[in-house]
Amino acid sequence: xxxxxxxxxxxxxxxxxxxxxxxxxxxxxxxxxxxxxxxxxxxxxxxxxxxxxxxxxxxxxxxxxxxxxxxxxxxxxxxxxxxxxxxxxxxxxxxxxxxxxxxxxxxxxxxxxxxxxxxxxxxxxxxxxxxxxxxxxxxxxxxxxxxxxxxxxxxxxxxxxxxxxxxxxxxxxxxxxxxxxxxxxxxxxxxxxxxxxxxxxxxxxxxxxxxxxxxxxxxxxxxxxxxxxxxxxxxxxxxxxxxxxxxxxxxxxxxxxxxxxxxxxxxxxxxxxxxxxxxxxxxxxxxxxxxxxxxxxxxxxxxxxxxxxxxxxxxxxxxxxxxxxxxxxxxxxxxxxxxxxxxxxxxxxxxxxxxxxxxxxxxxxxxxxxxxxxxxxxxxxxxxxxxxxxxxxxxxxxxxxxxxxxxxxxxxxxxxxxxxxxxxxxxxxxxxxxxxxxxxxxxxxxxxxxxxxxxxxxxxxxxxxxxxx
Length: 469
Hints:
Elements: H1 12-19, E1 24-29, H2 35-49, E2 54-59, H3 62-77, E3 81-84, E4 89-92, E5 97-102, E6 119-122, H4 130-137, E7 149-154, H5 161-169, E8 182-187, H6 193-198, H7 200-207, H8 211-217, E9 248-249, E10 259-265, E11 273-279, E12 285-292, E13 294-296, E14 303-308, H9 313-326, E15 335-339, H10 352-358, E16 363-365, H11 370-381, E17 391-394, H12 398-403, H13 424-435, H14 458-468
Helix pairs in contact: 1-2, 11-13
């Protein structure tokens, strides 16, 4: 054809990425590891090797995908492929296509409905919601003989951090996930030696970051990530029994003298959430039971994130009433609830609160102030100087345990939570915590005994120091 395509010499990690043929391949970790360049290399090679193949490259926003990939692909491909600005795609002489796409909200998924691709690249995939990733992945299909794969590049953090850490780093697979389909390449900054030598100031800037950020951006650690809203939530099985330095504990029968409460967040297309709480004599709250209206995948029985079961209010309150009538921790108890004030809205007829009352389910109007509410949740999660919090969660409350750790800060309101995420459990937890506000735990200052020549305070100061640290 007489056409030349520019191809850089791949780094060792990029070469692993180029050679990988598993159904799902992730290349992620530290910043600056050459991941986006690896995407362009792989896409060009596939387009040239398989005439007629359809390839999709997706980033979160339109601006990101255009700015990060179009100029460099145009430079690399020259006259080997024609760029169609209207359709946002590169068309090769052999019929292959590299399409550019984005997904920043639910409505953006419409552009992928009914469309087939052979290979999809999700660049900076952790910035996409897990449910979006699953729906975009449904486009990888077709009856031709082309490879059917999805490639991901990612940095720790973002809405789907927990999903990628589970399948690629921890390799904890569910029944419908085959381990042999998943291959992970850990990226580190040192892998990209051209960048290290060309921009030493960039490397030094990463080394100067706070420890958590440095661990992510420089070392590619998946055990920490920025933007996590409830980073103070701890689920440590080693402490379930003694209840120290963990919020999740083993269930137990609720003493007769403890009060029981209910918190509620309405949902239809999105999940509704109900939490039942026990309050002990010291005011510590225990999430003992929950009802989460999330649709289940038919093949695995696992929650489909942020997809509601579409129960009417009558169906929801009928199930709540049945649970309170039959469950041994709830039956015979006087239970008062708290809910979002919006369920008292009568502008469209009978309010949701009125529907609940007909089923014998009663609520008080919750305080819907968001920032004070989140602070009350944080106050409850804080550990005192002996390692005990003011909130516990029974390990059977799977919706709380799954959704709370993955929630992120809002990009535009730094103190608030990103409401586009699966925040329904968090909202009803907030309503309940605001109904029983507490003051923050004040940690005692650490003290150092500078001089004690007679050792008269040695034993006492040692005990205090061990407790404080």
